[in-house]
Amino acid sequence: MPVNTNFFLKKRLVSLILIGILLLVTYGAMVITQFDAVKGLTSIPQAVEWGIKNFYPNQDALDKLPRIWENLRETLLISLAASTVAGVFALVFAIIGSSTTRVNSFLGTFARGIATLFRNIDVAAWAMILLFSFGQSALTGYFALFFVSFGFLTRAFMETIDEVSNSSVEALRATGASYPSIIIHSVIPSSIPQMISWLLFTFETNIRSATLVGILTGTGIGFSFDLYYKSLNYNAASLVVIAIMLSIFAIEFLSNYIRRVIL
């Protein structure tokens, strides 16, 4: 009984220490950035009032809807293309890097290292890096989304293969099946539902990220928002936000439906 009491006391003490450190770091950040918490909280009603008065679509904004829809469609297509092409490359690297299906340890480590590199660099950072090579273009946004999607999907596919396919792969190896047969008849069929689910999740994430990337690259729906916002056309900017939200909700609903069907 005393042992259990000491254990819970230690856990509680560690939790209190971590909370104290977090509060100190937060306070230090507020001091360094000169952030006034009281002023920030009291300005919330003013921000809500401003939004109600200014941030809503009017007739002039609705006249710009065809152009907004064209840019939104471009964003959706770029997000879809980046997700699907990244999924194909990720599947190859996941098979090479998975501990269940890797050819050798060197290639496995190489594939995992590439996935870690591409996954840990943020999409905004990729966009800024690629701006030097491709300039402000749709290709820059596509590659930024592709690199991040490739890294994330490679890691997710590796874990899926290791979790789902291990027992079936061992069974086929025991029967003397060749490596291509194991991949085609065991790994892919058993892993494909989870992989599709990860692919849909990546597509949803890319739509959100594409808005920020569009602001940096001057393309798609992000460029429309940046243009209207900087020109103080808040009514049109609000319509852009509404269009983005509706597209995200629609795609999330479709993705959830597909997941319920395949899983």
From TrEMBL:
GO biological process per UniProt: transmembrane transport
Alphabetical GO CC annotations of the entry are: plasma membrane
Question: Where is it mainly found?
Answer: membrane
Q: Where is the ABC transmembrane type-1 domain?
A: 72-255
In which compartments does the protein localize?
Cell membrane
| CDD domains for this protein | TM_PBP2
Q: Which InterPro entries match?
A: MetI-like (IPR000515), MetI-like_sf (IPR035906)
Keywords per UniProt? Cell membrane, Membrane, Transmembrane, Transmembrane helix, Transport
Q: Which domain of life is it from?
A: Bacteria
A UniProt-annotated Pfam family: BPD_transp_1
Its membrane topology is listed as:
Multi-pass membrane protein
Enumerate the SUPFAM superfamilies for this protein: MetI-like (SSF161098)
User: Where does the chain cross the membrane?
Assistant: 76-96, 179-201, 207-229, 236-258
Similarity comment: family membership: Belongs to the binding-protein-dependent transport system permease family.
The protein's name is Phosphonate transport system permease protein
Originating species: Evansella caseinilytica
